[in-house]
Write a structure and sequence with these properties.
This protein is an alpha+beta fold. The protein contains 7 helices and 19 strands. The chain folds into 4 domains: 47 residues, no CATH class; 76 residues, OB fold (Dihydrolipoamide Acetyltransferase, E2P), CATH 2.40.50; 115 residues; 76 residues, Ribonuclease E, catalytic domain (Hypothetical Protein Ychn, Chain: A, 3-Layer(aba) Sandwich), CATH 3.40.1260. The strands form 4 sheets. The chain has a 6-stranded mixed sheet with strand order 11-12-13-14-16-15, covered by helices on one side. A 5-stranded mixed β-barrel has the order 4-5-6-8-7. A 4-stranded mixed sheet has the order 3-2-1-10, with helices on both faces. Helix 6 runs parallel beside helix 7.
């Protein structure tokens, strides 16, 4: 029997929500100060049709802030014209290189604007496990830090041995199962166990990373029990429904499926265009480190020292935190200090 627990970490500049599945992080929800509310999943707003692509049955919508959203035109929407105001709901968030997609609710009037905000992090958590209590405080901070670290990882250990590597590409998400030194009296039995374990781990980690679209799982070994594997995959990816579609195990030993994309991938928030930890992610980590030291030493004064761009990104959150902690903390940029070498010093 599976058990899900909920955690809410409210920090200066960022709120993080975590759902755990049997003690392992399954979902990481992020909301940062400065996020565009009109781009958030579930937001309802008035948008204006900026352009129409009748050949591909698409409308490009000005949301008022951020990139255009895309609306798929149905036959019923044939009367839509450029410049028209529409009431829409964000059904998938923007991700690198692609804007959000919207669902048409009806005609509207006036300029692009937010009509109803997206669900909060707390509301989203409740939706994943309505009967579970939401834990906060230091335990939530620790769980959120661990979930963030795992979301950034590529290789994940399998119960009983072996590993699975998960890497997104422009076309698909590649999942590679590695038997490793998995113990077992019989190779075929060990291979079967690794593949079944990999399906559960892959499904959880894909949810944690917020990845979807085409997923190709390269199973280990040959002579697979295809019906059993497909059945196990259907169960493992059940929480991602509606919209999961499974293919058969191919003669090359791969299992293909599609998983609906909804929220922005976590890596798009945590990393930059080069796949490195973003300036803002490092800055928010520094702010949490300053807060931890200041709370542990109630009378101490602390400064966060970082690369200039990291210090600049951290400054607004540090000001908020200083107001709450009595002005005992500051942040300073140090010329020549490399990224990734932020630290907290006591004054």
């Amino acid at each position: 029997m599976t058990e899900r627990r909920l955690y809410l970490d409210v920090g200066a500049g960022e709120t993080r929500g975590v759902v755990t599945l049997d003690g392992r992080p399954e979902r990481l929800l992020l909301a940062r100060d400065g996020d565009l509310d009109v781009q958030a999943l579930g937001a309802r707003l008035t948008a204006r049709v900026r352009a129409l692509d009748r050949a591909n049955a698409l409308a490009f919508l000005d949301l008022g802030s951020g990139p255009d959203a895309v609306l798929n035109l149905s036959r019923e929407a044939g009367a839509i014209t450029e410049g028209q105001a529409l009431e829409v709901e964000i059904r998938t968030e923007a991700r690198q290189g692609k804007g959000a997609t919207a669902r048409l609710l009806g005609p509207a009037e006036g300029p692009p604007r937010l009509l109803a905000p997206a669900p909060t992090i707390e509301e989203q958590l409740i939706g994943f496990a309505s009967h579970a209590d939401i834990l906060t405080g230091p335990v939530a901070r620790s769980v959120a830090d661990g979930a963030q670290e795992e979301a950034l990882a590529t290789v994940f250990a399998l119960p009983g041995g072996g590993s699975v590597a998960i890497e997104p590409t422009r076309a698909l998400v590649a999942v590679d199962v590695d038997l490793g030194a998995r113990p077992g009296a019989e190779a075929k039995r060990a291979t079967r166990a690794a593949n079944f374990a990999a399906l559960g781990v892959a499904a959880r980690v894909l949810r944690l990373k917020g990845l979807g679209g085409l997923v190709v799982i390269d199973l280990v070994g040959r002579g697979h029990d295809a019906p059993a594997l497909v059945s196990a995959a259907r169960a493992a990816f059940g929480p991602d429904n509606p919209g999961v579609a499974l293919g058969a195990v191919s003669r090359f030993g791969t299992l293909e499926l599609t998983v609906p994309r909804r929220a922005r991938p976590v890596l798009d928030t945590l990393t930059d265009e080069h796949g490195e930890i973003s300036v803002l992610t490092e800055a928010l980590g520094l702010v949490r480190a300053i807060e931890r030291e200041a709370i542990a030493d109630g009378g101490g004064r602390f400064v966060g020292v970082a690369a200039p761009e990291v210090a600049d990104a951290a400054a607004p959150s540090v000001i908020m935190l200083a107001a709450r902690l009595g002005g005992r903390i500051t942040v300073r940029g140090e010329v020549g200090r490399a990224r990734g070498q932020s630290q907290v010093a006591k004054l």
